[in-house]
Amino acid sequence: MKDLISINCVKLLIPALFYTCVCSSSVEQKIYVELNQTVPCVRLLNATHQIGCQSSMSGDTGVLHVLETESDLDWILSSGPHPPYMVILETAFFNRCCRVMMRMKNSSRVAGVAVIVSKTGLADNFSPHTTCPNQNTGVYSENYGPDLANCNVTVWNPFGNGLSYEDFAFPVFALKDENQTQVIRKCYEDHNQRVNGSAPKYPLCAMQLFSHMHAVTDTVTCMRRTDLQNRFSINPEVLCDPLSDFNVWTSTRPLNNSAKGHAADESVVIAATRLDGRSFFWEQAPAAEGTVSGIVTLLAAIQALYPVTQEAPPTRNIFFSFFQGEAFDYIGSSKMVYDMKRNDFVIDLDNVHSMLEIGQVGLHSGRSLWMHSDPISRQNKSVDTEVLEMMDRMRSAAAGLKLTVDHPSVSQPLPPSSFQRFLRERQIPGLVLTDHNTSFINRYYESMYDDAENLNVTYPPGLTPDEQLVYETDAAKSLAEVATLVARSLYVQAGGNESNLNNITADPKTVAQLLYGFVIQKNNSWFRSLLPPEVTKKGVNSILSSGPPQFYIGLGPRVHGPAHSVTRFVQYILANLTGSVTNLTESQCQNPSELSTENKDLFSYFWVSGPASVNSTSEPFCVRASVRLSKAVSPAFELLEYGSRNYSTWTESRWKSIRARIFLVASRELEMLTLGVGVAVLLLSLLVTYFISSKAELLFSSARETPTTTY
């Protein structure tokens, strides 16, 4: 009988538990409004400190308050009766008033900040970077040009407020969904807005932000704790990861990738630019002027150069490199120079004849470009002679173009550039080409507002996406001119015959397509045709999601597997611009070493989708090109020198949950009353349960039937 009772109880209990779970989920959906398209500020660490933002482990909650005027800050920080507050910042206050964020940083009355992202009220300038980018890992130091160190001569980023390098103990999110922003505003206006200066009454609209970071203090501490977990824990947990990805490189004459160290009979002219950018918020780095202008210029220059270098090869090889992670203390260039020193790269520093780096070349003010050089290395007569000759060649190459080329004062140092990492090891003749004489012209350097509009990429109304893709904007025409200048200068610098210069002209249409793909829409027909078929399918690693790519380096292959999306775009674009189409099948393309006619040491092989036909289908094919990837991870992590002052030590903290939601919160008195009623119900239910249990024999027993006996 007792077993039967137990079985019946279990049968009743299971549906009850299921019903409870379903109801609790339904109740949660009725209480909370989940916010989509939110982007957090995350924690980054280096050898000495931590920067960024984080929430507590269970998330941070506060009553919403929209900061409409700076006087509202006093209400939040002192007189408001319902702390802590979750502050909603309009774009104008976030990008104009760094002091607002700094005042809130040290207040216990602020639970977090949510920034409404829009172009309304955008300040004339906003750069959350420092005024002297990468000042501790460049070439200038107490041992090399001490008077030029720490931007003593030129403050390169005068608009920098350093906000990205502050450490906030509360979460800071960006709100990108305009519809949900309106929901938040209505919730605030209905429940939280002051009437005639008086405090609002409960219930109040509140927000909860989750962005707890696992890493603390600095990279040294984080990597030590991760190492201890790997040694002694059954289930080790990684707390942080080094920022890392890949550099992309190629050359006009293929280099043997299996041979490392000094390349015999090779003199190389390096042409370089950076691949990455950053902003205050995680993976929100459009980097249009700061990065894309250089990428597009160098890609277009390579396309213009390639046919001429095959028909009339210059005496020197031209080595093109796109460095990843340069925004974080020159990760990519440091790694390449480190490998060259160790004879672990296809060339070494002795092979390098000279270097030309493409910096910010968006041409914001007029048509002037500036050739920056290093005044310290130019004290060497042979270096100075070569630098002067490079300048003369570039001026000559500018003839017939709508550009003027000049150089700053000889005493001015180099701007932040990858070239500085090469100079730390060797006095190499070189120039950095930019659109600024002294300080950056870019008003939104390393911010989420360095976008297409900042680069002056705009289109007439009414154009379809495919028409925009090939439309030659003013920016495209300007960068095509710059690319032509770069290509011609490199050809002559490499020893090419000047009579061939008229055959070297960058294609404005290609520049237009590159600009559209990098600053407007990466998921376009041209980019799709250049990529592998499996990547162009929907839902595959989100490499072709809507919008422009983001240029934050991230964690690369250590965590996410393949190279960063921007790296892959550049890799495949470069292969298609410089490679040759083969008749190899897909399996042969993926395993070319099995064919005696192919050389995997000199070439890479790319299976690409090909252009779509009228019926939207495409025929994939194999491209052979001398395009390679090389690791872009700081040597500090190979050397296990996490406190290094010579190399980048930046890591990104790991986390489990990033989310945001709003809800109505009751008064403290009502919450306590609800808690009291709940406890009372619990006690009553325990009492009833005890009573039923003690009387179970009486309550659940049935009358025994008198047995019938048959004789």
TrEMBL record:
<keyword id="KW-0812">Transmembrane</keyword>
<dbReference type="InterPro" id="IPR008710">
    <property type="entry name" value="Nicastrin"/>
</dbReference>
<feature type="domain" description="Nicastrin small lobe">
    <location>
        <begin position="40"/>
        <end position="215"/>
    </location>
</feature>
<keyword id="KW-0732">Signal</keyword>
<keyword id="KW-0914">Notch signaling pathway</keyword>
<protein>
    <recommendedName>
        <fullName>Nicastrin</fullName>
    </recommendedName>
</protein>
<dbReference type="Pfam" id="PF05450">
    <property type="entry name" value="Nicastrin"/>
</dbReference>
<feature type="signal peptide">
    <location>
        <begin position="1"/>
        <end position="24"/>
    </location>
</feature>
<keyword id="KW-0325">Glycoprotein</keyword>
<feature type="transmembrane region" description="Helical">
    <location>
        <begin position="672"/>
        <end position="692"/>
    </location>
</feature>
<comment type="similarity">
    <text>Belongs to the nicastrin family.</text>
</comment>
<dbReference type="GO" id="GO:0016485">
    <property type="term" value="P:protein processing"/>
</dbReference>
<dbReference type="Pfam" id="PF18266">
    <property type="entry name" value="Ncstrn_small"/>
</dbReference>
<keyword id="KW-0472">Membrane</keyword>
<dbReference type="GO" id="GO:0005886">
    <property type="term" value="C:plasma membrane"/>
</dbReference>
<dbReference type="GO" id="GO:0007220">
    <property type="term" value="P:Notch receptor processing"/>
</dbReference>
<dbReference type="InterPro" id="IPR041084">
    <property type="entry name" value="Ncstrn_small"/>
</dbReference>
<dbReference type="GO" id="GO:0007219">
    <property type="term" value="P:Notch signaling pathway"/>
</dbReference>
<keyword id="KW-1133">Transmembrane helix</keyword>
